[in-house]
Amino acid sequence: xxxxxxxxxxxxxxxxxxxxxxxxxxxxxxxxxxxxxxxxxxxxxxxxxxxxxxxxxxxxxxxxxxxxxxxxxxxxxxxxxxxxxxxxxxxxxxxxxxxxxxxxxxxxxxxxxxxxxxxxxxxxxxxxxxxxxxxxxxxxxxxxxxxxxxxxxxxxxxxxxxxxxxxxxxxxxxxxxxxxxxxxxxxxxxxxxxxxxxxxxxxxxxxxxxxxxxxxxxxxxxxxxxxxxxxxxxxxxxxxxxxxxxxxxxxxxxxxxxxxxxxxxxxxxxxxxxxxxxxxxxxxxxxxxxxxxxxxxxxxxxxxxxxxxxxxxxxxxxxxxxxxxxxxxxxxxxxxxxxxxxxxxxxxxxxxxxxxxxxxxxxxxxxxxxxxxxxxxxxxxxxxxxxxxxxxxxxxxxxxxxxxxxxxxxxxxxxxxxxxxxx
Length: 423
Fold this sequence. Notes:
The chain is mainly alpha-helical. It contains 15 helices and three strands. Strands 2-1-3 form a three-stranded antiparallel sheet.
């Protein structure tokens, strides 16, 4: 699996939503031509093959191909299942039924993480966690010395709170309505993202400062990225850049100033020069880290992440899937849902591809403030343009988007068929 630089990490993560976008585009015409049920069965078959390939992957290329297949399957399923459920559910339970679709996704994520945790104990050096951190000494030290217990608790806690959050709409979506739940969730997401940005700002200000290497004979300033790494003022800025790591004296686990140095490009742990390089005779006295920094605020982002997931899961996660399956007329439903679902996955792709690069460009805290701003814009759009569809049939929802003239004609035709019909 090595080397896994930021490009490969982003690619492995992003390839799935990218192909999910392609799969959801292909699903629209396929569903109209061959029907809803065959496409659901096809996506299940592709899911199975993709999961097997990811499980047996012996290198990053096979893992990448397996995630391509999973992406296609996700695209098919995420487009066609909401359509099938919306068309086959009675009006009074349609919202709850569509929310179940999203809840089952998060239940699967929760179950997957629990099983992944159990598999981590099976030959952890070569099998556990599928090789992604194999021989990464920095990660091993981090897990053992800092949060070996809390990291697993965090992962399982997040996936439990995410699952719990998606269950909430099952009971409220038909009582409060889609729009109210969506707006409550959106405001909560904005606040929690701002809090997350503030938490990472506190982390940044609390990390150890960097020292200058001027006059120190053990440092070779001519190596690649030396001047670039040394320009960072503290540990957090240093380790956010995938070209740099932080080297500091190991004094009983205390936070002490150190040096920001370029990472050894050969894949071996340590820096290319300085006290944490393999050529330095007393390197065991120094501690090397390229993914974390010592700070008293480590638990804060974890706690806020749980709050964020709860707000996101109770509204912004399920409600768009519900509305997306309800908004469109029958003649355009498959195509419209296909396009909107594909847009969702391509934006997921964009976020996955740019997250690590964005944290380098505008810092970790700046990235979350940026996401909060994007969510604020989305909330304004929700307020202005999203109608309430609670207790309305699919035909009634279609009428919500008509002009006054078209709506009157629609009402007249429906009244001829059903005199009790009202919008």
